[in-house]
Amino acid sequence: METIPHWLTKQADLAPSQTAIELPDGFTMTFSELRDESQTYAKKLAGMGVAKGTHVGILSTNYHRMVIAIHALSYLGAVGVLLNIRLTETELNYQIIDAGVSYLLAADSLIEQVMHLDVEKIHAFSEINTYEEKAVNLNTELNLDDTFTIIYTSGTTGFPKGVIHTYGNHWWSAIGSALNLGINTNDKWLATLPLFHVGGLSILIKSVIYGMPVYLLDKFNEDVIHKAIMKSGVTIVSVVTVMLQRLITVAGSTKYPETFRCMLLGGGPAPKSLLEKAKSNHIPVFQTYGMTETSSQIVTLSPKDALEKIGSAGKALFPAQLKVITLENNGIGEIHVKGPMVTKGYLNNKVATEKALHSEWLATGDLGYLDTEGFLYVVGRRNDLIISGGENIYPSEIENLLTNLTSIKEVAVVGKADDRWDQVPVAFVVLNDQKMTESEIISYAQKHLAKYKVPQTIYFVDQLPRNASNKIVKHQLLKLL
Amino acid sequence: METIPHWLTKQADLAPSQTAIELPDGFTMTFSELRDESQTYAKKLAGMGVAKGTHVGILSTNYHRMVIAIHALSYLGAVGVLLNIRLTETELNYQIIDAGVSYLLAADSLIEQVMHLDVEKIHAFSEINTYEEKAVNLNTELNLDDTFTIIYTSGTTGFPKGVIHTYGNHWWSAIGSALNLGINTNDKWLATLPLFHVGGLSILIKSVIYGMPVYLLDKFNEDVIHKAIMKSGVTIVSVVTVMLQRLITVAGSTKYPETFRCMLLGGGPAPKSLLEKAKSNHIPVFQTYGMTETSSQIVTLSPKDALEKIGSAGKALFPAQLKVITLENNGIGEIHVKGPMVTKGYLNNKVATEKALHSEWLATGDLGYLDTEGFLYVVGRRNDLIISGGENIYPSEIENLLTNLTSIKEVAVVGKADDRWDQVPVAFVVLNDQKMTESEIISYAQKHLAKYKVPQTIYFVDQLPRNASNKIVKHQLLKLL
To answer: What are the tens digits of pLDDT across the range A100-154?
Structure first.
C-alpha cells in the first residue's frame, strides 16, 4: 500500500497560479482555484450525504464544472461512475443499477433529459452550489489501492462491464505516458475526447500530476482545434481516427508551430493511408493502443520512432509489459498486457474478471503481432477474426486495402456463415459522392489479396452502425446478413 | 508490493540504440550494449558465488565498468554497498564489517590499495571478465520493496550508518525529479558527483528510467564540464557549492546554449552571493535539498521558480511531503519529510531507525523554515545550532554574512562553551590572498548582526576539516577549542 498526497492539493501547493483549465471562450482556472472550488464542492456534497465509498454517477459534456465534480469526489473518497451521454435511458439505467449509483450529478444542460433515470437523488452541477457546506475532513492523501472511478466498457460485444480504476491505475498511467512522451514546461494538452471515456479522463489526471493546463472542448470541432494549435499554445492533442481525418482536411498544408509536438491517436488501428498523409503534412501523429481496462494508453510510439514506424502502436509504456500469445505461425496472436495501470477487475463481475485477468496479465481480446524490433501492430478484435476454410482472415487487412479507394468513405468487413468454408468475408461499404460498383471493388480486391480474403459480397449502406463510443458494432452488421 | 520490469532491460527494449553512457574521451555505450554487458557480468558474478541477497562492496571512481557492475547486481538481486574511495582503511573496514560485505569489486586503478581490506573475496572489475558465466535466471522484474543499494551516511556526527535504498526508493526519486524538472527528448545529464554518493547514483537510475544518456566524469574538472556544456549537448549538471564556484569562474561571461537547462545544486545551503552571481551570469541554478536517506533530491526549486526564489531549496517533489516542526516563533524548526523515496531505515540499526523515522516521517536533523508561499529555506544542521543566553543562533547566517567579504575564502561558525552564556559563537576563517584582521572582521559583523550573534573570536586556519564527502566536520573544529 502506497499513499501519495492528494494530487490536486499537491499541485495547487507546487504551482498555485499555474493554469489548470482553459476553455476556448477564454475562461481559465488556476490550480489553486480548482482546488478551492473542488474542496468547497466536496463539502457541499458531503452535506447531501455523499461519503467515502458512495457511488456517484457523473453525466456531462466536457466543461469545468465536470472537472470540479470529479475532483470533489476524490476529496471525499467517493467513487465516480462516469456515464456516456450518448447512451439511451435503458442503457444508462443498466449501468446505474449495476454500479449501485445512489447520486447522479449532471450537467445543467442535460438535467431535463436525465430526471427520470433510476436514481433517487439527481442534481444539476450548479444546484449543488446552493447547498450548505458540511464541515468534514477532506482527504489530504490518496491511497493508490482505493477505487476512484468506474467506467463501463463500450461493449461492442455482450453487456457492458464496469471497469474499476484505482488512484494507482490513473497515477501510473500518467507516469507511463510521461516517461514516453516526456514532460515539457510549456505543455498544454487539448481534451476533446469525452471525460467520461478513459482517454479523456486520463488527460485530467495528467494535468494535476504534471501541473499542466488542459484545454477543454465540450465537443469535437476541427476548426476550434486547428485554431487552438495555431494560436493557443496547445502542444498535445488526443484524437481518434475520424477526428484526425477531419483535422487533416482542415489543416491542409498549414505548418503547425514547432511547439505542437504530439497528435496522440488512439481508439483502434488507423488506415495506413491516413497516417502517411499526416506524415507528409508534418503532423506529428503518435499511434497508441489502450482501452478502458488499461486506464488509457499502455502501448505508444515514442517521439523518436513515430515517423519511422507508421502503422505500429509502439512499445509497452514503462513500466508496463506486453506479450502476444501467438495463434499461428505468422506471429499474429492475442495481445496480453500487464502493469500498474491495468484494472484489478470488473465491478461485481467475478466471471468476467477471471476470464480477462490471469496472474495480473490482461487478455485484451485484441489481435496483433510484434515486428522484429518489438513494435506492436494491432490487427483487430479477436471476436472479429474470420476463419474461412481453416485460414485466418483479419478484417482490418481488407478494410485498410479498400479504404485506399477514394470512392470509399468507410468499410467494415465481417465473416458470413458459409456451408462450405464455415465463414467467408463480406464487406459493408459507405461510398463517397463518387460511385463504384460491387464488381469494381471486388476486382480491385482480387488484384491485391489472396483469393480466400476477397469479399464474396459488397453491401452498400448509408452508414455503419456505431455505439455510443462511436465504435463500429460488427455484430449488428452480422444481424443484417 | 509492486513489481516493474527490470529497468535496464525495459529501456534496452524501448530504445536499444540510444546512448546510455558517454565519456569525455568519446567512448559511448548504448542501452542494449549496457544491458548485454551487465547481464554477462551478472552471470560471471553468479559463477563466483554472488546470489540474491549477497552484499557486494563496490569501490570505484566514475566510469562505465562501475555502472555495469551496479546493474549486474540488480540482475541477481544482490545488494551493492557503495564505498567512498576517499575513506581510510579503518573507515572502509568499519562499513564492510557493518554491512556484512562478502565480495568487494574495485576499479582496476584502485585494486592495489584495497587488497588488504577485511573482505574474503576482492576482485578488480576487469578480473571478473576472465571468469566463466554461470547459467542462472536473471531477474526480469524488480520488486520495488527489495533492497538494491546501501550507502553510508557521511557522518559529520557519530558513526556512519548504512542507509538502505530499495528499488522503489530509487524509482520514486527518479519520478519525483521528472515531475519537477520535466523530461526532454534531448536530455543528457552530466555526472561528476561520485556514483558512490546517492546524488551521483540517482543520475544512473534516472538514465535507465528516462532513456537518457549520462555524461560520466571520473573526477570533477571545471574545464571538462564547461566544454561538455558548450559542445556535447549536456542539458543538466548536478553540482555542490564548491563545484559551482569553480564553474562560474571558468564560465566567466560565456553564454551557455539554450539547451543547457539546469544546474542542480545540492549538498547543503549555498551562499546567496554565489547564487546571485550565477543568476547574473545566466546560469540556470536550481537549488535542491536532499540526503542519502531521501535517495537524493526531495525538495527542489522548479524551473518557473528558480530565478525568483534564490536561496530557497524549493518545494517537496511530487509525491513527497514536507513539514517544519517549529522550534521558535520565527518559524525555524526541524525539517521532516515523507515520501516513497525516503529510506525504510538504517542497516542493522534499529535504534537509529526509530530515532529518525516516525510514522514514515523522517526527522532530517536539518533546520529550516517555510516562507509564506511554502518555499523551504534550509539554515543548517540541528546539531550545529548555537544557543547563547537562551537565544538560538544559526551558524549559516553568520557564515553567509562573512562570505560576502572578498578576503574570506571559507568560514565555519561553531558554538564555544561559555560559563556565562552557555555558548558563544566563534568563527574559523580561511583567508584568500588578501589579508584581514580579527578586529576588522568582528567590526564588519557588528554592523550587520545582533550583538549576541557576533563571533567572540576569529580563528585563522589554513583549511577547514572535511570528511570523505567533502563536508565540513564541525565537531573537529570544536575539538580545537
So the answer is: 999 999 999 999 999 999 999 999 999 999 999 999 999 999 999 999 999 998 6
CB B315 within 8 A of CB B324: no
Cβ contact A138:A115 at 8 Å:
no
The grid cell for A277 is: 498523409
| DSSP calls for A261-286 | -EEEEESS---HHHHHHHHHTT--EE
C-alpha dihedral sign at A84, A88, A94, A100: positive
CA angle B251, B252, B256 (to 5 degrees): 50
Give the B-side interface with A, CB within 8 Å.
Answer: 2, 4-5, 7, 10-11, 13-16, 18, 175, 178-179, 182-185, 209-211, 302-304, 315, 318-319, 321, 340, 373-374
B179 → closest Cβ in A210, A302, A304: A210
Q: Are strands B79-83 and B55-59 parallel, antiparallel or unpaired?
A: parallel
CATH number, domain A385-480, options 3.40.47.10, 3.30.300.30, 3.40.50.720, 3.40.50.300: 3.30.300.30
Contact between B304 and A10 using a beta-carbon 8 Å cutoff: no
Instruction: Assign domain B3-379 to its CATH architecture.
Output: 3-Layer(aba) Sandwich (3.40)
Of the candidates B303, B318, B373, which has its C-beta nearest A10's C-beta? B318
Q: What are the start and end residues of each CATH 3.40.50.12780 domain in chain A?
A: 3-379
Q: Are B469 and B160 in contact (CB under 8 A)?
A: no
The answer to whether the CB atoms of B14 and A318 lie below 8 A apart is yes
Q: Are strands B333-338 and B321-326 parallel, antiparallel or unpaired?
A: antiparallel
Residue B119 Cα to chain centre, angstroms: 26
Nearest residue on chain B to A302, alpha-carbon basis: B14
Cβ–Cβ below 8 Å for A315 and B13:
yes
Nearest to B175 among A5, A15, A175 (CB): A175
Q: Which pairs with CB-CB distance under 8 Å and at least 24 residues apart come from B222-231?
A: B222/B246, B222/B247, B222/B249, B222/B250, B223/B250, B224/B24, B225/B190, B225/B192, B226/B250, B226/B251, B226/B254, B227/B24, B228/B24, B228/B190, B229/B190, B229/B256, B229/B257, B229/B260, B230/B254, B230/B256, B230/B257
The residues near B112 (Cβ < 8 Å, ≥ 6 apart) are none
Contacts of A373 in chain B (CB under 8 A): 16
Q: ipTM above 0.95?
A: no
Residues of A in Cβ contact (< 8 Å) with B13: 315, 374
Instruction: Count Cβ atoms below 10 Å from residue A4 Cβ, excluding itself.
Output: 21
Owner of C-alpha cell 532491460: B9
Taking CB atoms and an 8 Å limit, are A318 and B182 in contact across chains? no
pLDDT at B322 (0 to 100): 97
Angle of CA points B265, B268, B271, to nearest 5°: 80
- Give Cα separations from B450 to B301, B358, B392, B444, B453 (angstroms): 31, 36, 12, 12, 5
**Could you tell me how many CB contacts below 8 A there are between chain A and chain B?**
72
Residue ranges of chain A that CATH labels 3.30.300.30: 385-480
Q: What b/e sequence results for B24-36 when a residue is b if at least 16 CB atoms lie within 10 Å of its CB, and e otherwise? A: beeeebbbbbbbe
Which chain A residue is nearest to residue B18, measuring alpha carbons?
Answer: A304
- Report the C-alpha gap between B116 and A163 in whole angstroms: 61
Question: Could you tell me if B218 and B24 are in contact, meaning their C-beta atoms sit under 8 angstroms apart?
Answer: no
| Residue entry with cell 542462472 | B136
Burial (Cβ within 10 Å: 0-12, 13-18, ≥19) of residue A53:
exposed
The pLDDT tens digits for A274-286 are 899 999 999 999 9
pLDDT tens digits, one per residue of A42-93: 999 999 999 999 999 999 999 999 999 999 999 999 999 999 998 889 989 9
Q: What is the pLDDT of residues B5-49, one digit of tens each?
A: 999 999 999 999 999 999 999 999 999 999 999 999 999 999 999
A140 to chain B: closest CA residue: B321
